[in-house]
Amino acid sequence: MVSENETIVAISTPPGRGGIGIVRFSGPRALEIALPLLKMRAELEHARARFAEIVDPEKRSKLDEAVVTYFEGPNSYTGEDIVEIAAHGSPVILDLLVRQSLSGGARLARPGEFTERAFLSGRIDLTQAEAVRDLIESQTLYQARVAAQQMGGSLSRRIKPIKQNLVELIAVLEAGIDFADDDVDVMADAEIVARIDSVIGPLAELARTFEHGRIVHSGLGLAIVGRPNVGKSSLFNRLVEWDRAIVTAIPGTTRDLVTEKVAIGGIPIELVDTAGLREATDEAESIGIQKSREALADADLVLVVLDASTETWNEEDDLISSVAGRCAIIVYNKSDLESRSSSHHMVTEDNGMRAIRTSALTGEGIEVLRSAILDLVRNSGTGGEDDMLTSVRHHEAVTAALKRLEEAREAISRMTPHEMLMLDLYAALRQVDSLTGETTPDDILNLIFSTFCIGK
Ligand code: GDP
Ligand code: ZN
């Protein structure tokens, strides 16, 4: 089946110039198409790198030098024959190689098609394929570690015993239904309920890991809000350690939202510097304020910045009460300007929010702020688990499976015939199987692989 595939080709290194550029082939004709592009002294052997010259098709002279690696199917990434030509990273030469192989009968690979073939040939399951993409897209080392675990099949291993229990239950009930006339013992209802619970338990536990897994995968949004001129942009810059926001002494200049990604504790955090939340004096500013309100509403974490050098924060009362109950930190900035001890003003601790003094000018308190943000990040999920659900797709499948299992459980208490119960159990099984790709519909598969980069 696999051997009938077309041979695909793609530049697998990122676009543009680089030290090395790799053109990759996969398919039954990989060798046949790649070899004419090269001049080699020794034959290609499985999993061995060979030195080669890339030949100019017109002048018949040497165009570049390359290292060529061959993997003989089925012991390759895709399960098919693979040839990788690592040349110098000149887009001109890489393009030439691709064009020549297209006229030699190869087809340009779609995004993710190499990994799709690895999946279709059964070398990896769908959770592993998705983990390949996550690993490539990871922005922090922590994310990469989680993806690497799943690439090794950690999620599949966790799902396996759950599925096993479900399949056994279905098998027993099927037998009971088929032989109902022949006096075969149908399982007692209490036993069925117990068995369903033994599937629900670990599945629900898995579903809960998404609380943290979602954050690991997508990161958190942190909005910096406060009145104009309190030092939001300066704090933003301190946290980013890179001058992106415009810092000026004129109130109300950060009209648009400025965002920047940072990593705190391995979690990507999107910092949003908002315009000062106060009455706008012109239209551009009022748009900025509107955007700030939206950013505040969307944010997972909020820094409410106050000016520590002023006497009272009456104007901020509304803002502070509006973030009550959310993951927020009150920041008393400009601590360097504080004339006298105004600790009696720091009344915000009693809404359960942490209050921290900083000076964006001197850097005082910035490290404390960072670790306070890290605490909030850690608190926003259970954390610590290696094989957590990080993908929305996986979470939806697990949740849907749980729903059908709960329905099955309820059906028993209503004395519903077992045939009806089976519908729920099979539906739950299909959801569990869709995690690893056993029952994932083609259009969903296409959707998943289309999010990969070209050449992977
Ligand atoms: P924003 O409007 O809240 O974004 O405030 P900015 O970050 O633009 O800062 C407004 C002014 O306050 C600028 O002149 C900053 O240099 C100054 N500023 C910001 N943070 C501090 C601080 O911690 N101490 C002092 N002394 N000045 C600060
Ligand atoms: Zn600003």
TrEMBL record:
Sorted UniProt keywords: Cytoplasm, GTP-binding, Hydrolase, Magnesium, Metal-binding, Nucleotide-binding, Potassium, tRNA processing
Coiled coil: none
EC number: 3.6.-.-
Annotated TrmE-type G domain residues: 219-378
Binding site for (6S)-5-formyl-5,6,7,8-tetrahydrofolate: R24, E84, R123, K456
Record keyword tRNA processing present: yes
Assembly with partners or alone: Homodimer. Heterotetramer of two MnmE and two MnmG subunits.
Protein name: tRNA modification GTPase MnmE
Organism of this sequence: Alloacidobacterium dinghuense
